């Protein structure tokens, strides 16, 4: 039974009756990000994407932590919970595990998800609760006005690191793959079409999907992802990951390195058959991991898209199954029977 | 040989041995026999933090005390009448608690030179005169057991291990306990190892027969059943009762229960128990830590579940931030704290009442929560239902303060039928509540309870957002307005202050006491027993016990002021006293001992008497 | 044209504009000019939580208030004499605070139809009669600035942005402020963009000249320097003072400072400031969360550092478990809580005094910690040194309760020289302390302070283990002994209770007041100002301010009892009142407002007078 | 300067004067694990290993969390800190970052390190503070009497999971590699020689080294690693990782899979040159990650040894450098100068 839901992330969520539009998903709250913030584009993309799912709006919930990005739920005309810093995956786990009829989205930032909330994130991933986690990675703490984050590059000069940061950043994709994630993807605020395509697959995946979204913070870390937006550079550094397609762009291509692992080479230096064909469903996460490492040195070749999409039964589903099995085996709970269970005696 | 049978009204037995000797099991079984016989009883397990502390050492001693009687009793007893000591360490660790004249049944086989040395006995106390003031029964329990099991096809080690069953058999004979259930229990427990099952039954029977047939024991005892009120009874520990209370709360509120928890002594057993009851639609989630445990419970509550999290002191500290979020989002949530000795890791297997002020104040900002504390193991059931009632009715997190003593102690419990339990259900909000008939105001309050509506995802038309930032009264939108904040701070406080809490009842048989002894939580038994003693000695004392620590019962100020003196024993440095002094400006007399152990009734009787005498 | 110069003894100016208008910078610069001129002053920044809230909206308004005078003053002032309103939102958001007759300088250019609509003005208030009761100066600040910068090679946007400098220049002229430092400041700030630097200076000068040469303003004002005691002064905010105090504590204790912290408003600036002072051997560690921040600080303390962690309310909740570990391991640690409005996320940029009870009780078990609260921004320096002194001397975590008002507010500070600062160093233990001369007892206490020895890794012969489980008195070995636990609980409490804390001083000029107004923390300024007002009006009131919240000064009970009435204003629901009532059974009169804002002196003066009148 | 300390984990720790023995490292505290617990063997191995380091005993610190394993520091006659559950890496980070003259060891369990302490662990790894983390993995919660842990296999029946656990376990090696760990190894309680060899390299690594130690809990999860100890099975399932050596045992060998990643094949089915030669210093972590996945299905082929040992400057060292640089640039701090800094004015 659990198998049969694989790939059907929303199978248990009731369908909407009429046709929905972007407007249905806009709340009446004034949006309060800085003018020019990448969060606007993501919000617009998500609002325009939601009708496509065709599920009841009231069965959709956005849960967030704290950070600029975590204001997101206020702007969605769905149920929403703006919780506390780092804990959204935990809160969403309880919600999704007890309500399989909901479509639950977690909105989080690089600090929220990877600094204070790192543990909840990796546990959500290994558990595979039916959640879609959108990680807005701007490589900075926005809301607290510009300290470095766990995805900031080494040597970053910020308010808290006037001589440069010392610690090696996390690669969210590598971390997620190392944490047994079933669905891991990366996209970017400025590319609505790509964002939609990734959200579509994330929603379809039944289990925890992690989507890293490169997001520009124009106030504290402007142009962090400029190379990926610059029309001239964009196409030569981005490596689009598409299932069943060779991983390459006009000038670069990925192949198996002779000593193991992957390498990026000039596309015209190898034959087309040598180019690695992407398999998002590969049960072995090793290649997805290797792909996640290609962005070193930074922004020379950046894979974008779905790194891994492998089904396994979701936690909430297995939990429901145990409840059903318990009833099937011994009947539904009877309170009197339970209370009077064990060694009892009677006094008249 | 017919033996003499002596009538007793009550007995306190302490089984003590090495952690590996199975003393908890032995105690549990003796308790079960005693319960089914119909005595009133109360138990106190006491075990080391180590899973298996080094054999034969003092820190490795594990004990189980049982008090049973032909009348209703209140505590596991101060001083054992009988000590079963399975080795020298058990004797040494427990002797100081034993009044002169008490019986000691010692396993002579274990009093070897090596074992004696381990605990610093130079000579064997079973053989010199040092125990002359007690009634010593030196019995070679191990070798008797091994001999009894000679014919079985089991290892010597397994045979030796059955010595606790021999001891149990002997004690069962000594106090005329019914044995059938124990035999059945052994058979079920070892169903997969028939040889072990049979040999344990044989050891048990051998112990019983040893008492009956040898001359080692010339007297056996009879303790009549207690005249308990009619009904079905079972023996129950506080953790079990609390878990069952939560199941009952789920059924009676018609809400699915979601437990988010992280294991911690002495609370883990609630998680274990609840995880068995999936037939009731109960979801138990072992989280990655306490923060995730409470977070998941809160998320489930947002989704319409009865969200519960269970933990002990250090875990409560970790949950503080999330409980604050529950306070401000006004969602129902039950936070169970099975208090243990602190600060920090403290003494995880020992009891204490030191988390009251943390429960009340351990969060940033003005963050009021109701606090409830059960008084006895079986009372944990009712307290859990009451906590759920308040959480649901008022949409608030509720702190339920049990402790290590209640958690593991047990007593007979008159099992309620479902029909007797209150209906604590409150319907979700499903319709718009705005004046215009279409908008939904998630923070528009019920005029009577001040509770906000609970509209859960899946309800069309009531889509809304909540969060930890201050909310505008009514709409719930983010608000930084100074007056709104002041209003909301006061409304949250007023909601908690207004919770319907039953009046405090005072027990004063003659109605003319001038001293009140007050307590809360697990000190109920010792305090009530102490009051009885004092009264038996002619002293006048009134007794009252607080179950609601926040808000207090409405009549409490009046009660406090109607006595010349108020004595408040607490297993902390005076936490409830601080609250009462502040609120009522009454010069409460505190009595505080923080020893990781429950009070003794005798000790408290002395303290009460002193206060009376100082009048 | 020579203009009239009018003498004033004090002025309150509020700069208000959009978040993007640079009001904080403008206020800071005006403050710096005012400070260097020699007035006494006090400031109150007030900004939205959003980084850049939508332009032109009410939630996007950012303001900076400055009170300066020719005498010593205590607060940033209740009601501005002058409001600089850079747009309609700024006018609308602040008008209600403005007494009739006050000056309004409004940037007429921004009062466009669109901007007016955004905040719900149907007609332009600069043009109808609605502001008739104020002295309105409608100045086209933006266009004047743009015009003044025509010749510069900068974008129109950059030119418009300089309008705050124009306003600053105008106000500088109006109050006769020295301008050199501001010009230098602008040049340094924009050193890398010379065109911007030059145009900003030009805008500033243009504003100044506008005042001097046009007829828009006919009067300018003179406020003489305040007769402050001799010394070197600087203007300082609470967060800065606290950070410098920690540096000083490190120097004066001869201990390297280790800060483990996680950013959170309004505490982050302490992290920022300390991270600049690596030359002092200060290590700042931005941790993954608050738990790691305090954990690392505690680890560093174990290694012999002055361990510090800085945070705000929700972060304190998260640190509770680790602070408990510091309590039981008895290691020095400073926990700084810059309180903000709660509960939960609350209102992060607003002030509050609601974490006192959490600081005292927010941990499992009996877990006493000293608590200290500074009274004014500059007092944060001394409070930090005092916290360090206690932490080191008594080997204990210390809670230092600042708040959002102190953190961002500023005042002139008479800079102490290092020679004036106390030596707070305490040597590490380096020799065995056992009676045998060779063993080391990590929990053998100093007879006077009850502090345990602090022997750090690297010290030969003193190798030892500590931890969160209860420790045997003296040896520190794990102990489950009931009497030992009771003893240790009491010893830890006695150590904190015995901390040497200066007596509470009472300010009662005539010595015959019957009413005492008491406060703690950041309410000092408004309370003292209120007391002055009351006295000026002939009322008799004594004033005292608590810096040590735990333990209390030894004489406090006596002080409380020597007045008929004790009034205690707090920005919470009565947290200190609860403690004092409990401890001294005194019927404290609480005055509580939880609006996220400091009290106003006038408001408190009224309350004090009422209490006096009710005598 | 930071480079020069690479590979010299103890370069800044003072050397012992005389020769030390195992006895020097035994404290006077009675050891209190269950008879037969694997922790005894690890304790004995560590005690016998410490003299080899030749550093001052008083400059050695053991920091632990909570759990059976976390009792460890009490038994070492060094400085020790038995802290709180999950927080040892954080506490040790503060200690090691402020005291480069100490050799700091963290003792932790699978629950302590990977459940409640997961976030501190992954951040310590990416930061690369000079710590040696020994993770005693018994795949169960011992101290709290037998609940499943984040390394328990799916379907495990324990007190808290009477119908079997639902969540996919972490693979500690994969997680660590995904968290940018520089040094990651696995060893087993019963093999003292191997344990010593791994500890030796861990101590030599300047930065955070994570050593997973399979440890038997004979009370609550007995024989979890029996296959690796059974003299018959042991040698055919264990794959010893040794730098520069082919990864193979008598019957099995590892090679690059033609479709990427690694695979285990019958040793005699391939030529010796095809066997993957282990390179612990490979800067690309992809192969170390792939190796960590070989233990699927469980206990068919279990790599043991050092997966990855790659140097990069340690956090504590970089931090010290910044302090020195600040002094070099502007001289040591002068309190009077600091206090009187900024805009001051004088009143006479
Ligand atoms: C417990 C707690 N700690 C710290 C904070 C302060 N805080 C709020 S958001 C944030 C980090 C924001 O960074 P990120 O998650 O990257 O979000 P962004 O603002 O960049 O979208 C911090 C440190 C808090 N609100 N609560
Ligand atoms: C904050 C907190 N939560 C929970 C506990 C209870 N606890 C102690 S050890 C432990 C887990 C032990 O498992 P592991 O880390 O694998 O160590 P082991 O005992 O197996 O060596 C737990 C849950 C605690 N002491 N503190
Ligand atoms: S600070 Fe950065 S992330 Fe935050 S709203 Fe502004 S631009 Fe966006
Ligand atoms: S419970 Fe398991 S891990 Fe703990 S001491 Fe016993 S055998 Fe070892
Ligand atoms: Mg960010
Ligand atoms: Mg374990």
Brief rundown of the structure:
The complex is a heterotetramer, with 2 copies of chain A (348 residues) and 2 copies of chain B (615 residues). With 348 residues, chain A is of the alpha/beta class.
List strands and helices in order, with pairings:
The complex is a heterotetramer, with 2 copies of chain A (348 residues) and 2 copies of chain B (615 residues).
Chain A: H1 38-53, E1 60-64, E2 79-82, H2 88-98, E3 103-109, H3 110-116, H4 118-127, E4 131-137, H5 172-178, E5 183-188, H6 192-204, E6 209-214, H7 226-229, H8 231-237, E7 238-241, E8 252-256, E9 262-266, H9 286-292, E10 302-309, H10 315-330, H11 335-339, E11 344-347
Parallel strand pairs in A: 1-2, 1-3, 3-4, 4-6, 5-6, 7-10
Antiparallel strand pairs in A: 5-10, 8-9
Helix pairs in contact in A: 1-6, 3-4, 5-9
Chain B: E1 4-7, E2 10-18, H1 23-37, E3 40-46, E4 61-69, E5 82-85, H2 88-95, E6 103-107, H3 113-118, E7 135-139, H4 141-148, H5 156-161, H6 163-174, H7 180-189, H8 194-213, E8 219-222, E9 231-237, H9 238-253, E10 257-261, H10 268-274, E11 283-286, H11 290-302, E12 306-311, H12 313-329, E13 333-339, H13 356-361, E14 371-372, H14 379-394, E15 397-403, H15 404-408, E16 410-414, E17 465-467, H16 482-497, E18 506-507, E19 515-520, H17 524-536, E20 542-546, E21 548-550, H18 556-561, E22 565-570, H19 575-584, E23 589-592, H20 601-613
Parallel strand pairs in B: 1-8, 2-5, 5-6, 6-7, 10-11, 10-12, 12-13, 13-15, 14-15, 19-20, 19-22, 22-23
Antiparallel strand pairs in B: 2-4, 3-4, 9-16, 14-21, 18-20
Bound molecules: thiamine diphosphate (2 copies), iron/sulfur cluster (SF4) (2 copies) and magnesium ion (MG) (2 copies).
């Amino acid at each position: 039974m659990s198998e049969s839901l694989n790939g059907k992330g929303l199978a248990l969520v009731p369908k909407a009756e009429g046709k929905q539009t972007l407007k249905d998903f806009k709340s009446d709250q004034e949006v309060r990000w800085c003018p020019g913030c990448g969060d606007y584009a993501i919000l617009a993309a998500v609002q325009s994407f939601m009708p496509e799912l065709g599920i009841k709006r009231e069965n959709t919930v956005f849960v967030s932590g704290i950070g600029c990005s975590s204001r997101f739920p206020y702007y969605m005309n769905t149920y929403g919970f703006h919780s506390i810093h780092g804990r959204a995956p935990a809160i969403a786990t309880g919600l999704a595990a007890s309500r399989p009829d909901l479509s639950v989205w977690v909105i989080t930032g690089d600090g929220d998800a990877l600094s204070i909330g790192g543990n909840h994130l990796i546990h959500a991933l290994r558990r595979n609760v039916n959640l879609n986690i959108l990680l807005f990675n701007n490589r900075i703490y926005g809301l607290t006005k510009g300290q470095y984050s766990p995805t900031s590059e080494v040597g970053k000069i910020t308010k808290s690191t006037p001589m440069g940061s010392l610690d090696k950043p996390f690669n969210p994709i590598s971390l997620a793959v190392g944490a047994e994630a079933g669905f891991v993807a990366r996209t970017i605020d400025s590319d609505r079409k790509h964002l939609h395509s990734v959200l579509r697959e994330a929603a379809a995946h039944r289990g925890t999907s992690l989507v890293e979204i490169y997001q520009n913070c124009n106030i504290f870390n402007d142009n962090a992802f400029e190379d990926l937006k610059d029309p001239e550079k964009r196409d030569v550094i981005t490596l689009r990951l598409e299932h069943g397609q060779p991983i390459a762009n006009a000038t670069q291509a990925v192949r198996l390195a002779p000593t193991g692992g992957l390498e990026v080479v000039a596309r015209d230096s190898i034959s087309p058959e040598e180019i690695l064909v992407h398999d998002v469903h590969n049960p072995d996460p090793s290649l997805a991991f290797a792909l996640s490492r290609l962005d070193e040195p930074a922004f020379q070749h950046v894979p974008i898209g779905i790194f891994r999409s492998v089904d396994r039964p979701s936690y909430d589903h297995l939990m429901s199954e145990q409840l059903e099995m318990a009833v099937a085996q011994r009947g539904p709970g009877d309170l009197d029977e339970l209370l009077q269970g064990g060694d009892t005696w009677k006094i008249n | 040989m017919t033996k003499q049978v002596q009538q007793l009204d009550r007995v306190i037995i302490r089984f003590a041995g090495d952690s590996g000797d199975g003393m908890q099991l032995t105690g549990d079984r003796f308790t079960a026999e005693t319960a089914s016989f119909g005595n009133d009883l109360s138990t106190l397990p006491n075990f080391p933090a180590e899973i298996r502390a080094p054999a034969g050492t003092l820190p490795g001693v594990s004990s189980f005390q049982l008090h049973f009687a032909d009348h209703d009793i209140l505590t596991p007893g101060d001083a054992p009448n009988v000590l079963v000591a399975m080795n020298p360490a058990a004797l040494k660790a427990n002797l100081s608690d034993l009044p002169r004249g008490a019986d000691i049944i010692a396993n002579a086989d274990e009093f070897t030179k090596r074992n004696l040395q381990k605990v610093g006995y130079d000579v064997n106390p079973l053989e010199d005169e040092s125990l002359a003031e007690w009634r010593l029964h030196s019995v070679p329990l191990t070798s008797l057991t091994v001999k009894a099991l000679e014919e079985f096809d089991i290892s010597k080690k397994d045979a030796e291990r059955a010595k606790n069953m021999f001891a149990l058999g002997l004690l069962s004979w000594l106090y005329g306990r019914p044995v059938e259930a124990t035999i059945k229990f052994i058979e079920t427990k070892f169903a997969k190892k028939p040889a072990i099952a049979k040999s344990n039954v044989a050891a048990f029977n051998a112990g019983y027969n040893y008492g009956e047939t040898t001359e080692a024991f010339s007297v056996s005892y009879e303790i009549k059943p207690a005249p308990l009120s009619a009904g079905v009874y079972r023996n129950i520990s506080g953790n079990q009762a609390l878990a069952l209370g939560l199941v009952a709360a789920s059924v009676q509120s018609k809400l699915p229960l979601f437990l988010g928890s992280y294991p911690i002594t002495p609370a883990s057993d609630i998680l274990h128990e609840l995880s068995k009851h999936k037939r009731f639609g109960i979801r138990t989630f072992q989280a990655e830590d306490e923060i995730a445990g409470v977070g998941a419970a809160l998320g489930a509550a947002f989704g319409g579940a009865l969200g519960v999290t269970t933990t002990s002191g250090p875990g409560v500290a970790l949950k503080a931030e999330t409980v604050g979020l529950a306070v401000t989002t006004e969602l129902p949530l039950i936070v169970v704290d099975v208090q243990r000795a602190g600060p920090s890791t403290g003494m995880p297997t020992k009891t204490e009442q030191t988390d009251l002020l943390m429960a009340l104040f351990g969060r940033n900002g003005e963050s009021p929560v109701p606090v409830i504390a059960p008084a006895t193991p079986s009372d944990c059931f009712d307290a859990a239902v009451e906590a759920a009632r308040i959480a649901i009715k008022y949409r608030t997190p509720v702190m339920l303060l049990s402790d290590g003593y209640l958690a593991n102690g047990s007593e007979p419990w008159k099992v309620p039928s479902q029909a007797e339990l209150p209906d604590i259900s409150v319907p979700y909000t499903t319709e718009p509540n705005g004046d215009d008939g279409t908008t939904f105001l998630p923070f528009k309050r019920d005029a009577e309870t001040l509770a906000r509506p609970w509209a859960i995802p899946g309800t069309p038309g009531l889509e809304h957002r909540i969060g930890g930032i201050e909310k505008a009264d009514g709409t719930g939108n983010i608000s930084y307005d100074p007056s709104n904040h002041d209003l909301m701070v006061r409304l949250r406080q007023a909601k908690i202050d207004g919770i319907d809490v039953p009046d405090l009842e005072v027990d004063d048989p003659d109605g003319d006491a001038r001293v009140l002894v007050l307590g809360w939580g697990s000190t109920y038994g010792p305090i009530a027993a102490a009051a009885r003693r004092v009264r038996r000695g002619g002293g006048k004392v009134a007794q009252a016990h607080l179950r609601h620590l926040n808000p207090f019962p409405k009549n409490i100020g009046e009660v406090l002021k109607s006595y010349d003196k108020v004595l408040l024993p607490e297993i902390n440095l005076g936490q409830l006293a601080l609250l009462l002094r502040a609120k009522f400006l009454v010069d409460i007399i505190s009595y505080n001992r923080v020893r990781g152990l429950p009070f003794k009734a005798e000790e408290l009787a002395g303290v009460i008497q002193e206060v009376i005498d100082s009048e």
